[in-house]
């Protein structure tokens, strides 16, 4: 018998299985969610000099970020305005963006500088042709873009997050990425995000994380804007495998800021920054990139050890969890169960999952149980 909600106080039900198994739902998410939200592009340090560029994609939309001559970071569609050839590949540095198909040349500010044979074309107005630019913000050294030209700025989406990150990680602007570790998960991206966004399962499934990194009994998650704010203290700072600078008032805390829909900033005790980036590749596959950072990109045995411990414990444990959930959703026998929501919040509450459902429902504009 299917669970039903007959009164205003009935439990919130989990999403129907097709939200995680239907390729058509995933296809709609590309335009309804990923094309209308702030998406991570690259780290600012990868664009150190004018002309440095990095390519990336949001779904089927190919883009590139580049440092212009004024020092600003710009992002453009990776499509020539002539006959659509891709302009650049991978990453590198160029004084101009030159299309490899017919040699159209663009300045770093997107303006067309020259096109072979243009002088023979009556009415050809170079000044009217520019690369298509997208909304770009640099957020604590991380470059984000939004394909929606009318989207509100990141501070409106994620109020107070930038200030908090700067308080927890003094000198965050000096950090460079030293490790970007891709982890393939055979599940829908939302299964992975939801698993990350609650600690109801932490004691049972993450013994290392729950005993040495966090105090699960003091763990809470609070929605704020389109952010889920994870807060707790370290269960035993003395167990950490690296020295902790007690001069930072947040040194003994673990905190996380999940920014809907696809990135999270994690700060381990001692101000060690880690990121989770979800790149959905299909309705039943996602790559989760774990990023690690140090001042100036300096080699750090402590961060190397922490990253390996994370892979061997929490990451390995989570892969088993999310792939099992996906198999259950695909079984044909799943009927949505009630979320465990405590009005007071806390670690044994799934109010954060209900918040994600709300954002999903808002973006997709339809009945979440459909």
Major sheet size, sense and barrel closure = 7 strands, antiparallel
Overall structural domain count? 2
CATH top level of the largest domain? Answer: Alpha Beta
Helical proportion?
10-25%
| CATH fold field value of the largest domain | Naphthalene 1,2-dioxygenase Alpha Subunit, Chain A, domain 1
Shape: globular
Sheet with most strands: strand arrangement: 1-10-9-4-3-2-5
Count of discrete alpha- or pi-helical segments spanning 4 or more residues? 9
Q: Low-confidence parts lasting 5 or more residues at pLDDT below 50?
A: 1-7
Q: What is the CATH architecture descriptor of the largest domain?
A: Alpha-Beta Complex
Q: In whole angstroms, how far apart are the ends?
A: 17 Å
Pattern of helices and strands? HHEEEEEEEEEEHHEHHHEEEEEEHH
Q: Using only CA atoms, what is the Rg?
A: 23 Å
> If you average the pLDDT, what whole number results?
89
CATH superfamily of the largest domain: Naphthalene 1,2-dioxygenase Alpha Subunit, Chain A, domain 1
Q: How many strands in all?
A: 17
Strand content: 25-35%
